[in-house]
Amino acid sequence: MKILICIDDTDNLDSIGTGQLLEDMCAEAENLGLAKGGFVTRHQLLIHEDIEYTSHNSSMCCEAETEDLQAVSDFAKEYLASHAAEGSDPGICILRLTEGADHEKLREFGKLAQTVVLKKADAYSVAAMYPGVLSLTEHGGTGDGVIGALAGVGLRLTGSDGRVKGKIRPERENETLTVREFCGKYPVEQVMTEDGELLPEDTELCFTEPTKAVMADGTVTLIAVRDNGRWIPRPHKGKKK
Length: 241
Description:
This protein has helices at residues 18-31, 69-83, 104-112, 120-127, 145-158, 179-185; strands at 2-8, 36-44, 58-65, 91-96, 134-138, 163-164, 175-178, 190-193, 204-207, 214-216, 219-227, 230-233. With 241 residues, the protein is of the alpha+beta class. Helix 4 crosses helix 5.
């Protein structure tokens, strides 16, 4: 079965980031034969003076496959509790994905968390609408991480929110590839302009600087921009989380 795992508020200024913790958790789960994890996405939440966060107030989510939901859930919660940084307020959300399920309330909560200051009670109220398929738990501190953990799941479910963790770097300087070649070589499935227009497969890209993929229409997507008359992958120069 497929599941989503999202964690939030696990770090402090001296610890590894929440995204790295989730990647490490999934790698360990795979080593133990509990689950096989996919790529991690970062979901930006509201920046507000009434919200405590370490640096960016973002949650981290990934999809995984497992044959034993209870075993991987128990492992993930124990891993989070033992590896979250001192002084953090970690929360974790695990959702079993079922065909045809109505996730609208989760998507609404995720979008709301990007514009409104929410409380733990709000998160638990929405979680209660998904008995038997969703687990939302806190593992230290104030436990406020459950807000971001639930929101991250909701935003991942929209299919068009989140940046894929990890930079994509050109293999050589000024590498020139068609869209088809780029998608065959690097971990992206389509190339899109900032206006949301898909570039034809024969469009040439000049790969000059590291970039990051994003989620768009449920697909891992590269954003391309015009630069001196040519298309290039949008450079990423953000700060390390």
